[in-house]
């Protein structure tokens, strides 16, 4: 028997999930790492780790995954569903259904006392002012964002009813190196780094002045740990994360091209504007910058890794991965080939990666952050 708090991390083998495991590793807690593909427990660690494989869309799977847990961090999502229609039942089962199951387990008196949920900064839609700070009204414009908003509302109602204490952290574009055994970053930053490493142009759907909020993966992970520590003060509200510094996409891509050139010794690849595809959304042409000062005031959290340092780390990691795979750093076939353009969660991959967690595959696939 142990009196250590039990924290269940759902989506533990994903890109953000594996970083959260590392952030919890130095704590005197027990971490139950739940995912469809076995998560890798960080070593050395003061925490005890239980690695559990489960498909959380199956009946009873959520209840079993969180049994005895004091707190849950829910990082499960269907990433392929972010451009899908509202009627995509599989995406809704993942993005909304898992939260519904968590609430029902808590309502029965056998679930966790605290749930920290990964929302999306894009839920706000096209905000009339920048930066967003969580006080503006939401106008979600995609099926993905509407599902996230519905899940957040479920948590808020359950919190108001005293069933649990729910906290939503709204993530902007998260980037950084993948951890061993963890999911790859399939967002716009790593996608464009891979293209630059392959010698291909970096393409935009606009003139490059649209701004994006970028958050290094370690900073995202530390925010979830901070939310656990201050759940009582954060309950029943959403908290957007960021650094209040929006980066113009054109500047971001040119920086990526320069850093890759520095890494490879080759000339920088060009950054070019192209016509948007028919699938482009209005939010793709609207800036998103986040002011997280409210969250900082409660928790003391703030982003620690500056953009240039984070980009350099990511370039180095992806370059080493390509060399390990035998890539030649010249144009041609390479992992992660994508369609043109960028969005809040990055371009949509053409190549389907894998059936298990951490990929960015077809709409019916369940993956984790």
Counting DSSP H or I runs of 4 or more residues, the number of helices is 10
- How does the major sheet shape up? 7 strands, parallel
Helix content: 25-40%
Quote the distance from N terminus to C terminus.
31 Å
Can you put this structure into words, describing what you see?
- Helices cover 33% and strands 17% of the residues.
- It contains 10 helices and 14 strands.
- A 7-stranded parallel sheet has the order 3-2-1-4-6-7-11, with helices on both faces.
- Helix 1 (15-24) crosses helix 6 and helix 5 packs across helix 8.
- The chain is globular and about 60 Å long.
Give the structure's gist in a few sentences.
With 369 residues, the chain is an alpha/beta fold. It contains 10 helices and 14 strands.
Task: Describe the structure using short key phrases.
369 residues, alpha/beta, Rossmann fold, seven-stranded parallel beta sheet, 10 helices, globular, disordered C terminus
What's the helix and strand layout?
Elements: E1 6-10, H1 15-24, E2 30-35, E3 48-53, H2 61-65, E4 71-74, E5 76-77, H3 89-107, E6 114-120, H4 143-160, E7 165-171, E8 173-175, H5 188-197, E9 202-204, E10 211-216, H6 217-229, H7 231-234, E11 237-240, E12 246-248, H8 249-264, E13 271-273, H9 293-299, H10 307-324, E14 367-368
Parallel strand pairs: 1-2, 1-4, 2-3, 4-6, 6-7, 7-11, 8-10, 9-13
Antiparallel strand pairs: 5-14, 10-12
């Amino acid at each position: 028997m142990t009196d250590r708090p039990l924290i269940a991390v759902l989506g533990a083998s994903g890109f953000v999930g594996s970083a959260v495991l590392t952030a919890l590793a130095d704590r005197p807690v027990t971490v139950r790492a739940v995912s469809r593909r076995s998560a890798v427990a960080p070593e050395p660690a003061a925490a005890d780790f239980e690695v559990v494989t489960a498909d959380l869309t199956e009946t009873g799977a959520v209840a079993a995954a969180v049994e005895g847990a004091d707190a849950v961090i829910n990082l499960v999502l269907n990433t392929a569903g972010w451009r899908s229609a509202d009627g995509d039942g599989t995406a809704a089962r993942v993005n909304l259904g898992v939260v519904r199951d968590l609430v029902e387990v808590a309502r029965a008196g056998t679930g966790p006392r605290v749930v920290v949920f990964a929302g999306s900064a894009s839920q706000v839609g096209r905000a009339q002012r920048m930066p967003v700070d969580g006080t503006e009204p939401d106008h979600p414009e995609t099926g993905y964002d509407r599902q996230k908003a519905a899940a957040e509302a479920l948590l808020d109602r359950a919190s108001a009813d005293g069933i649990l204490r729910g906290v939503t952290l709204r993530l902007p574009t998260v980037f950084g190196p993948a951890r061993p055994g963890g999911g790859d970053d399939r967002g716009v930053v790593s996608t464009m780094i891979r293209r630059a490493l392959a010698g291909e142009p970096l393409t935009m759907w606009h003139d490059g002045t649209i701004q994006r909020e970028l958050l290094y993966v370690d900073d995202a992970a530390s925010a979830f740990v901070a939310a656990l520590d201050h759940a009582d003060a954060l309950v029943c509200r959403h908290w957007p994360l960021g650094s209040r510094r929006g980066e113009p996409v054109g500047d971001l891509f040119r920086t990526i091209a320069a850093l890759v050139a520095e890494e490879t010794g080759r000339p920088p690849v060009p950054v070019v504007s192209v016509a948007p595809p028919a699938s482009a959304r209005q939010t793709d042409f609207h800036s998103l910058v986040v002011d997280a000062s409210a969250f900082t005031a409660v928790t003391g959290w703030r982003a620690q890794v500056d953009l240039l340092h984070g980009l350099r780390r990511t370039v180095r990691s992806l370059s080493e991965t390509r060399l390990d795979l035998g890539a030649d750093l010249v144009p041609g076939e390479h992992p992660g080939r994508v369609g043109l353009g960028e969005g809040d969660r990055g371009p949509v991959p053409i190549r389907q990666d894998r059936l298990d967690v951490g990929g960015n595959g077809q709409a019916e696939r369940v993956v984790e952050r």
